[in-house]
Amino acid sequence: MKLKLLTIILLIISFSIYSQISDQRAKSELMSSPSFYTDIVNYADKDLNKTRVDIFIKVPLNKIQFVKEGETFHGGYIATVSFYDESKSTLLQEAIWSEKVEIKNYDESLSSSNYNLSIKSFSAKAGNYLINITIEDKDSKKQYSIEKLFIVKNIDTRLGISDLVLLSKSENAADKMIPLVTGIISSKSTVLRTYCELYSDTTRDIKLNIKIVEKNGNVISDNKVKRNVVNGSNRVTFLIDSLNLATGAYLLTVSILDESSGARCVAKKDFITRSPGLPNAVKDIEKAIEQMVYIATPSEMDSLRDEKSAEKRVEKFKEFWKKKDPSLATEENEVMNEYFRRVEFANKNFSHYLEGWKTDMGMVLIILGEPSNVERHPFEIDSKPYEVWEYYDLNKKLVFIDNTGFGDYRLLTPLTGDMTRFR
Question: 394 to each of 326, 372, 374, how far by Cα in Å?
Fold first, then answer.
C-alpha cells in the first residue's frame, strides 16, 4: 500500500514538473513575433465530389537564416501542410516540400517587408478540418507552426463563386497574381484589388454586388456591375477605387445574382486596414487606445479618446509612441511593437469572461514581459490551483491563485510603485 501511494505521489510530482517545463516552453514560443503568414482558399475542383484548397504561405526573410556562398546568400526552409479531421485524431493528407531562397545583399534579409511566397494545392471533400502548417529553417532548425480550423466548402458549379483573394497589386494574368496573404492593407491605399473564380453551367449574364462593410454594419462601398460568364470557370479580377478607409476591421462581400433564374451565391473576406507605422497586432485603433492603460496617463488616454477625427486620432496615437521610440533612425518602433505583441499574447492565452489584456496575468505580462520561470500547480491536494511567476532580473516572485476553478487566476499581491508602469 505504501509503495502504491509513493508511486502515485511520484507520478503527480513528475506531471507537475513536466507541466511547468512544457508550459514555459510554450510561452517562450508564443511570445515570439509572427514568423509567417498564411491564407487558405476554396476553389471548384475537377473532381466534382471535391473542392480544391489552395494554401498560400508567406515567410518574411528576416525569419530565415542565410549563409554566404560565393557572392550571394542562401537560405531555405522545409514546409509541411497537414490535413486532420476536426478533432485532430486522424491525419488525412500531408505535403512536405523544400523552399530555397537566394539573395544578393544580406540587408535584404533584415526587413520583414521582404518575403518568400509559396502555394500548395490539395483536393478535399466538403467538411470541417484542422490544418497545421509548419516551417523549419534548414540551417537553424527552428520550427514555427500555425493551426487553423477551416471549412472546405461544397462549391456549386451550376452557379457559384470561389473564396476571395486580396491582391497586393494588379496583374493582367490571374496566374501571375500576388496575393495579399496578411489580409492587411494600408489605410492610405485608395484601391482594393480582388481575385475570384465564377462558375456557371451555361453562358449567361449575371449581376455582381460588391460591398465593403465596417464591423458595426455601416456600408462603406456598394457597387453593382453586370458581367457575362461562360460555361465553366471564369477568372475575375476586379477593383474598388476611391476608397478612404480608416484603421479598422472590414468585411468584403461579393454576391452573384442570375435574374433569369433568381439563383444567388455569395463570398466573403475579412480584412483590416492599418496606418503605416502601426504594428500588425493593432487592428482596431479605439481598442488599442484602451489597451494603453498600463503605459499612458489618464490625461493622455482622454486626449486620444476625445479626438473626433479618426485620421487625427491615429496621428496622435503614433505621436504618443514616437516619443517612446528608442531608435528614431529606424522604421520600427520597438517599444510599441513589443507592447502590442504582449497584448496580443495575453488575449490569446488568458482570455475567459474578460479579454486577456484585462486579466491579472495579462496585466503583469504586459507590464513586466515574459517571466524568467513559471511554476504551475494545477492539482495541489491541499490548495487551490496556483501559478508562480519569477522575474530573476527584478528579484520578484508573483503568485496567481485560481479561486473559482475556472482559470480565473488572480494576483495575490498587487503590483505597486514603478511596477505599475510598462518598461
Answer: 21, 10, 15
**Could you write out the DSSP letters of every residue in 288-338?**
HHHGGGGTS-HHHHHHHHH---HHHHHHHHHHHHHTT-S-TTSS--HHHHH
Report how far residue 45's alpha carbon sits from residue 65's, in angstroms, rounded to the nearest whole number. Answer: 37
H helix or E strand, kind and range, residue 12: helix 2-30
Residue 120 binned pLDDT confidence (cut-offs 50, 70, 90): very high
Say how far apart CA 248 and CA 285 lie, in whole Å. Answer: 7
Which domains can be identified in the chain, with CATH numbers? Answer: 35-154 (2.60.40.3880), 156-277 (2.60.40.3880), 280-420 (no CATH)
Q: Cβ–Cβ contacts within 10 Å for residue 421, how many? A: 10
Query: How far from 399 is each of 371, 390, 414, CA to CA, in Å?
Result: 12, 9, 10
Q: H helices of 131-236, where?
A: none
The model carries a pTM of: 0.73
Confidence bin at 327 (pLDDT 50/70/90) = confident
**What mean pLDDT do residues 309-336 have?**
86
Task: Tell me if residue 181 falls in helix, strand or coil.
Answer: coil
239, 177 in Cβ contact below 8 A?
Answer: no
- Distance, first Cα to last Cα, the chain: 53
pLDDT tens for 54-63 read: 999 999 998 8
Q: Which long-range contacts (CB under 8 A, 24 or more apart) does 330-336 make?
A: 331/277, 333/277, 333/279, 336/278, 336/279
C-alpha cell at 336: 510599441
Q: Phi first, then psi: what are they for 87, rounded to 5°? A: -85, -5
Backbone angles phi, psi at 376, to 5 degrees: -105, 135
Q: What is the C-alpha to C-alpha distance for residues 281 and 131, in angstroms, rounded to an integer?
A: 23
Residue 400 pLDDT: 96
- What pLDDT does residue 8 have? 36
